[in-house]
Amino acid sequence: METVIKMLKELHPDVDFESADGLIDDGILDSLDIVSLVAEIDSEFGIVVPAEEIVPENFNSATALFKLIERLDEE
């Protein structure tokens, strides 16, 4: 989870990602941020995020993103 927070903070250092739960819904993350995160997840964890997983529910919070990474890592 710490790595996920770090990745998010690199994009927006001013956001409290530990409590934010509407990153997409509130417009904190945009499409370019998502592309950056997907690339960083591949680089950091060696996990390719399939296109069908790039949905707001998976990127609305650090916890949701962490759960996505865990789930994809198990597959």
Description:
This protein has helices at 2-11, 31-45, 56-59, 62-74. The protein is globular, with a radius of gyration of 11 Å. With 75 residues, the chain is mainly α. 56% of the residues lie in helices and 0% in strands. It has a single domain, classed as Non-ribosomal Peptide Synthetase Peptidyl Carrier Protein, Chain A (Orthogonal Bundle). The chain contains 4 helices and no strands.
What labels would you give this structure?
75 residues; mainly alpha; Non-ribosomal Peptide Synthetase Peptidyl Carrier Protein, Chain A; 4 helices; 56% helix
Instruction: Describe the sheet with the most strands.
Output: none
Structural class: mainly alpha
CATH architecture: Orthogonal Bundle
- According to CATH, what is the topology? Non-ribosomal Peptide Synthetase Peptidyl Carrier Protein, Chain A
Low-confidence stretches: none
Shape field: globular
**Name of the top-level CATH class:** Mainly Alpha
First and last CA, distance: 19 Å
> In angstroms, what is the radius of gyration?
11 Å
Q: What would CATH call the homologous superfamily?
A: ACP-like
Give the overall average pLDDT.
96
Helix content: 55-70%
